[in-house]
Design a protein that fits this description.
This protein is mostly helical. It has 2 helices and no strands. The radius of gyration is 15 Å and the shape is flat. The chain starts with a helix and ends in a 6-residue tail after the last helix.
């Protein structure tokens, strides 16, 4: 996994799975709001 992340210029942060889940849930809510307010849609 470290190699894959490094290939994308990323670095793992570590921590327990439940902490990671909370971060993902927070980020999803944040970006849903941004997409909605900016009226971003998927082009077909």
């Amino acid at each position: 996994m470290k190699k894959r992340l490094a290939g994308d210029a990323l670095e793992g942060g570590g921590g327990p799975p439940d902490q990671f889940l909370k971060i993902l849930q927070r980020d999803v809510e944040k970006w849903k709001k941004v997409v909605k307010e900016a009226k971003i849609t998927v082009a077909n």
